[in-house]
């Protein structure tokens, strides 16, 4: 089943152009997201939605965090994002007009399912699931469903499930934005970015050889710091989680603006710092954060897009294709997946079945 690939994780990383194309299939036509993708009642439910509560665990939570930025910025609708194991054990205040959105690859994660069930008795507009398994408990329990269509994911470390979640959530954010009257040009640009994604992903995966070379340096490290801003802060979190999960290197992600508030004290020549640096409205701020890292002697790995490659002082620079706000979190996730993969292979860990972890956490 793994075919030519040494591990399922590597196979699943390389399936992403197709998986994302499948997520988009039949959901965009004539430059528009098709409202029917969410089911027949969706139009009326979205009209009533004026805030969103996202609940998920692990990698799915990171997808939710990215979606939170999109939903507030594009749809102009307030969005909260919370870990399911926290949400389910507190007493959340539900404002009228709030849509509950659970995100889960497996659809069987105990905490996410419990949160969804708990939400039933509350005053939500509806409960929606973004999920990869059609017959799962979370899908059965939800009124609105958007399937990610990633296909089976065997590797414990989530890869194509994450990027297809991002794409499904981008479709949802655009659809909600349309229902809330987003300006037509911005909407059209968002749709166009999604349509171009499968090609951009395929192009980015060709950087595999360069990323493997970076991994050689990395494999002997004990710690790593991942930095990003905006939607790329949760992308940095996802990169850190991948590295921890399969290579057992201690990794942490910070919003780059937080560096001076503590983590900068950790930076010295033994601390690799990975910066997720697409050319968005925060790039100049990020560049000055990175100068602080360099000034402390930290070994800087900058993942930039071709439009910012110049004027960035780093030990290692990986140049990715330029892309817009919806495409960038997907594209910038890919080198982080590959970096974690190659580091784990070099360290000789069990990539597909990391110690102490299960693919689906069905008990708390
Ligand atoms: O099936 P789910 O998306 O609900 O699973 C949630 C997490 O357990 C999962 O994303 C986990 O964090 C991954 N193994 C990370 O790679």
From TrEMBL:
EC id: 2.6.1.16
Q: Name one GO cellular component term.
A: cytosol
SIS domain segment(s): 42-182, 214-354
Section of the entire sequence shown: 244 to 607 of 607
- Any keyword Ubl conjugation? no
Keyword flag Transport:
no
The name this protein carries in UniProt is Glutamine--fructose-6-phosphate aminotransferase [isomerizing]
Please name the catalytic residues of this protein: 359
Q: Which domain of life is it from?
A: Bacteria
Record's keyword terms, sorted: Aminotransferase, Cytoplasm, Glutamine amidotransferase, Repeat, Transferase
Protein's cellular compartments: Cytoplasm
What is the purpose of this protein?
Catalyzes the first step in hexosamine metabolism, converting fructose-6P into glucosamine-6P using glutamine as a nitrogen source.
């Amino acid at each position: 089943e793994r075919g030519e690939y040494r591990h399922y994780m590597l196979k699943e990383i390389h399936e992403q152009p197709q998986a994302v194309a499948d997520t988009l299939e039949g959901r965009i036509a004539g430059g528009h997201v098709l409202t029917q993708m969410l089911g027949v009642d969706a139009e009326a439910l979205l009209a009533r939605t004026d805030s969103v509560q996202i609940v998920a665990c692990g990698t799915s939570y990171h997808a939710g965090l990215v979606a939170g930025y999109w939903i507030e910025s594009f749809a102009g609708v307030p969005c909260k994002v919370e870990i399911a194991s926290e949400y389910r054990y507190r007493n959340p205040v539900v404002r009228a007009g709030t849509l509950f959105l659970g995100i889960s690859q497996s659809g069987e994660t105990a905490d996410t399912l419990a949160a969804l069930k708990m939400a039933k008795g509350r005053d939500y507009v509806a409960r929606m699931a973004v999920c990869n398994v059609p017959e799962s408990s979370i899908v059965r329990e939800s009124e609105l469903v958007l399937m990610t269509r990633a296909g089976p994911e065997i590797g414990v470390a989530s890869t194509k499930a994450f990027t297809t979640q991002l794409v499904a959530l981008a479709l949802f954010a655009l659809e909600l934005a349309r229902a809330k009257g987003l300006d037509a040009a911005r909407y059209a640009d968002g749709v166009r970015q999604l349509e171009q994604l499968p090609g951009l992903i395929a192009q980015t995966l060709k950087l595999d050889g360069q990323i493997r070379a970076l991994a050689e340096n990395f494999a002997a490290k004990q710690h790593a710091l991942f930095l990003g801003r905006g939607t790329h802060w949760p992308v940095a979190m996802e990169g850190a989680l991948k590295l921890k999960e399969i290579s057992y290197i201690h990794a942490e992600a910070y919003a780059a603006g937080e560096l001076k508030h503590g983590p900068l004290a950790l930076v010295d020549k033994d601390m690799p710092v990975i910066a997720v640096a697409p050319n968005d409205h925060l790039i100049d701020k990020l560049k000055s954060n990175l100068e602080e890292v360099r000034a402390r002697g930290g070994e800087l790995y900058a993942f930039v897009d071709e439009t910012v490659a110049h004027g960035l002082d780093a030990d290692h620079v990986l140049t990715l294709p330029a892309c817009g706000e919806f495409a960038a979190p997907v594209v910038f996730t890919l080198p982080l997946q590959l970096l974690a993969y190659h580091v784990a292979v070099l360290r000789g860990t069990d990539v597909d079945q990391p110690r102490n972890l299960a693919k689906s956490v069905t008990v708390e």
